[in-house]
């Protein structure tokens, strides 16, 4: 939604709804917060307009800034400048459009063809561990190599986070 609003120039690079557009879909909501009407109440079964608010846009910005900033910090730790590929697991990865994610700057730039959505990797891994002892042993070895990193405490994270709030990243 946010990527499409940005492409249509209905929100600006800061994520604010544009006051330069002439559309009834952008309005002040009941609480005074700007919102975009996705569907009018006559088009819904709820008898209410379906809206995407300024607060909703900000929540997306915060989430994408954390993800992008975290990627940048991890890349810096590993002395990596660019991503050759990206694997996204879980429901998140199955329900996000790659082009929209790249438009927003959800993660550092990567060729869309090199972004792989693997779905429920944890569930699939659990299944493999149940049916194949060697896969269980492999998962155990990999788990012992995992390092926990508290991103919010990492040097540079706050700066990367702040840069990544913009749509797209500056």
Give an overview in words.
The chain is α+β, with helices and mostly antiparallel strands and 170 residues long. It has one domain (2-163). The protein is 43% helix and 13% strand. The chain has seven helices and five strands; from the N terminus they run H-E-E-E-H-E-H-H-E-H-H-H. The protein has a three-stranded antiparallel sheet with strand order 1-2-3. Strands 4-5 form a two-stranded parallel sheet. Helix 2 crosses helix 7 (157-163) and helix 5 crosses helix 6 (133-145). It starts with a helix and ends in a 7-residue tail after the last helix. The model has no long low-confidence stretch (mean pLDDT 92).
What is the compact description of this entry?
By secondary structure, the chain is of the alpha+beta class. It contains seven helices and five strands. Helix content is 43%, strand content 13%.
Name a few traits of the molecule.
170 residues, alpha+beta, 3-stranded antiparallel β-sheet, two-stranded parallel ribbon, 7 helices, 5 strands, globular
């Amino acid at each position: 939604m946010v990527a499409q609003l940005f492409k249509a120039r209905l929100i600006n690079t800061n994520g604010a709804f544009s006051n330069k557009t002439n559309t009834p879909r952008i309005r002040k909501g009941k609480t005074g917060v700007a919102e975009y009407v996705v569907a009018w109440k006559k088009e819904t079964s709820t008898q209410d307009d379906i809206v995407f608010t300024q607060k909703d846009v900000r929540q997306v910005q915060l989430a994408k800034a954390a993800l992008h900033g975290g990627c940048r910090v991890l890349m810096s730790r590993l002395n990596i400048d660019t991503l050759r590929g990206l694997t996204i697991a879980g429901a998140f990865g199955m329900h996000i459009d790659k082009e929209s994610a790249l438009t927003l700057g959800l993660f550092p730039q990567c060729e869309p063809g090199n972004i792989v959505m693997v779905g429920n990797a944890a569930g699939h891994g659990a299944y493999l561990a149940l049916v194949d002892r060697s896969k269980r042993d492999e998962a155990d070895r990999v788990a012992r190599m995992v390092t926990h990193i508290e991103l919010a405490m990492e040097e540079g994270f706050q700066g990367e986070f702040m840069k990544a709030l913009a749509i797209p990243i500056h």
